[in-house]
Amino acid sequence: MTEQQIEDMGPALADFLDQFLFCCGYTQTFAHLGVYCRGLLSDLDRKTCEPIALAAGIPVRTLQEFLRDHDWDEDQVRDLLQCHVAAALPDRPNDGLGTIGLIDETGVAKKGSKTPGVQRQWCGELGKTDNCIVTVHLGVVRGRYKTLVDRDLFLPKGWSEDRDRCRAAGIPDEIVHRPKWKIALEQIDRAKGNGLILDWLTFDEGYGDCPEFIVELDDRKLRFVGEVPRSLRCFAIREPVAASNSWAEDLVRHSPAFVHQPWQTFRLTRQTLGEQIWQVKAARVWLSVDKKPSAKSYWLIWARNERTGEEKYFVSNAPEDAALLHLLRVAFSRWNVEHEFRVSKSELGFRHFEGRNYVALMRHMTLCQLMLTFVSEQTEVLRNSQPEVTLEQVCFCLNGLFKQWLEKLRGTTDRAYRSEVSLYHQRHNRAARLSRQRRHCDLPPEYSHGRRRPAKHRPRRKCRRSLSRAP
């Protein structure tokens, strides 16, 4: 990228944000939207309200109120984003697969118990069960273009049943616990209503494990190739008398439809990884819905990695004459959503949210998706002349550009900025220390640090004298 190309991305972001300004209730919020979005694209270590406000030279409370209290509609921003992506997708280069929708979830590790939806649950980024929040997302990919276009918080049952806790976190009463596959269906319907037409949909086995989800997609006439667990129940034949359901793993190893079928070998490539060779068998099966065969048959695809021996199972409602290579390419395109999460978390501050308010969390996620779309569009523009440009490279260049923008907005030198940040944290720490001292002095004398002790072992402190000596 040349210096001029990097410089041109500044006005390009201003033009991009113009279409979302009037989601804000009043014009004073326009500037805060621009500051927050540019802060997400800057090189700050933490991209939350406090460091962004300090880097921009504006009061921290002002940006916190923008994210939590100001009158602007984050759902309208999401809808406009989907309309914008839908209008631009037909002009994107196509690799023969069309537009693929990507359903997936991601976990973000959190401490404490106040962040909306936080509890011990499976956290994908940690690879284990831990304290985290989980969000469900819809992404799209067409050729090399990819972005995220929807987001929802998965609200655990424990939260949903404790409405006082939900209200304390700002979660509306209409937001209740829903299975992740139902959240995904709502996102698919919403995208279609905003003109975002998907040629295919793919998902992982967490969603493929639910036959109701697969049947609902089929009812919507949406073609899909989704991964399913080896324990998926299905039928090799549909006749009620002879039919008996089996696990997908047992069926592919013992059903004549698979046993008498030779392996087919396919070579699949990815942009940054070496070629993968998969051996594949496929046949039509019927899913087990309420222990009965489904009304129509589906493809069950058994894929085995030639080098590692890894096995995957996929289900698809594609026509019987569909090319197996085409179905495999759709199924293995799911890596794109993992790349989108990685860029959002590492480059755009997706995991940096710090707060206890549901509205602020949803707005933060919405603006992260907005900036991911901007980065993806700029990457596509640059690829016309530089095919090897990546999302990470564009983010790296934007980091420097908007670092300078924040410095110009702040109007102080780097040394003065660091001094002000240091003084801000000193004031913050002193206020916290005094607050803890006051809370401690308000306790009955037999308490010390939250534990009951006999009063004779700890004489009562003179609170006023103690506080008066505080520096």
Task: Give a summary of the structure in a few sentences.
This protein is an alpha+beta fold and 471 residues long. It has helices spanning 3-18, 28-40, 49-56, 60-68, 74-88, 157-160, 163-168, 180-193, 205-208, 211-219, 248-254, 256-259, 324-331, 335-347, 358-383, 391-410, 414-441, 463-468, and strands spanning 100-109, 119-123, 128-142, 145-153, 200-202, 225-228, 233-235, 246-247, 264-268, 276-289, 292-293, 298-305, 311-316, 447-448, 451-452. It has 3 domains: 3-205 and 337-408, no CATH class; 225-316, no CATH class; 414-468, no CATH class.
Please give a structural write-up.
The protein has 471 residues and is α+β, with helices and mostly antiparallel strands. It folds into three domains: 3-205 and 337-408, no CATH class; 225-316, no CATH class; 414-468, no CATH class. It has 18 helices and 15 strands. The strands form three sheets. Strands 6, 7, 8, 9, 10, 11, 12 and 13 form an eight-stranded antiparallel sheet that branches. Strands 1, 2, 3, 4 and 5 form a five-stranded mixed sheet that branches. Strands 14-15 form a two-stranded antiparallel sheet. Strand 9 and strand 10 (276-289) form a beta hairpin. Helix 1 (3-18) crosses helix 16. The chain is globular and about 75 Å long. 36% of the residues are buried. The model is unreliable at 448-458 and 462-471 (pLDDT under 50).
List keywords for this structure.
five-stranded mixed beta sheet; 471 residues; alpha+beta; single chain; 15 strands; 18 helices; 19% strand; 3 domains; disordered C terminus
Mean pLDDT across every amino acid position: 89
Radius of gyration: 27 Å
Coarse structural class: alpha+beta
Query: Tally the helices: what do you get?
Result: 18
Number of strands: 15
Give the termini separation.
53 Å
Strand content: 15-25%
How helix-rich are the residues, as a percent range?
40-55%
What does the overall shape look like?
globular
Count of discrete structural domains: 3
Mind describing the biggest β-sheet? 8 strands, antiparallel
Low-confidence stretches: 448-458, 462-471
